[in-house]
Amino acid sequence: MASRQFTASITRIVGASGDGANLVQRRKEHWFSRFASEIATRSGRPWPFALAVCTVAAWLVSGPIFGFSDTWQLIMNTVSSIVTFLMVFLIQNTQNRDSAALQLKLDELIRATAPRKDLVGIEEMPQSELESKRRELENGTDTSSDA
User: Fold this and answer.
1) What distance in Å separates the CA atoms of residue 6 and residue 69, rounded to the nearest whole number?
2) What sign results for the dihedral spanned by CA atoms 51, 53, 56, 57?
3) CA pair distance 62, 17, nearest whole angstrom
4) How many Å apart are CA 115 and CA 118, to the nearest integer?
5) Which residue among 37, 46, 101, 106 is the one 20 to 30 A from 137 at the CA level?
6) Across the chain, which distance is largest between two alpha carbons, in Å?
7) CB of 97 within 8 A of CB of 127?
8) Contact assessment for residue 133 and residue 119, using Cβ atoms and an 8 Å cutoff
9) How far apart are CA 15 and CA 29, in angstroms?
10) What DSSP designation does 119 have?
11) 133 with 104: CB under 8 angstroms?
């Protein structure tokens, strides 16, 4: 039983092909892309929303304590502006990668009659490999062994 669980865990880590390509691709990926993807994924969950609601509620409750002063308002405006500013860049990075991968998949569906297994999960590839795949598709070359 334990060996089946171990095998299943290894298969998830290295990918169904067993060659470790997915794991290697994740290591090659630029640190900012990994960071942006992780933050975008985590910030889209319910707990960050609940944290934001609690922060706003605490800020509102503290209003009478600070006499609804200009400083009290400035703190919330500053914090929300900084968080929004940073999140825009993180989410945009993730959206750019997802968009590029989706476009490549759509291009392949239009150009080919048979599906290409190497494009499954392409959104997990680093940007440099996405560009390489784009050039392959535009040139009509095929370096995959599954096609």
Assistant:
1) 59
2) negative
3) 56
4) 9
5) 37
6) 69
7) yes
8) yes
9) 17
10) G
11) yes
Give Cα separations from 10 to 13, 99, 120 (angstroms).
Answer: 5, 29, 19
Structure tokens at 112: 């080919």
Q: Which pLDDT score, from 0 to 100, does residue 100 have?
A: 86
- Look-up of token digits 């440099």: 128
CA distance 23 to 26: 5
Supply 81's token pair: 């502006």
Tell me how far the alpha carbon of residue 81 is from its chain's centroid. 22
Tell me which residue has tokens 């929004």.
84
CA distance 124 to 136: 18
**Digit-coded pLDDT (tens) for 115-147:** 566 776 677 788 888 888 888 888 876 655 444
Contacts of 134 (CB under 8 A, 6+ apart): 100, 104
Question: What pTM was computed for the model?
Answer: 0.52
Helix intervals (H) in the chain: 2-14, 21-28, 31-43, 46-62, 70-111, 127-139
Neighbours of 4 (CB within 10 A): 8
Query: Residue 61 has which token pair?
Result: 């409750």
DSSP 101: H
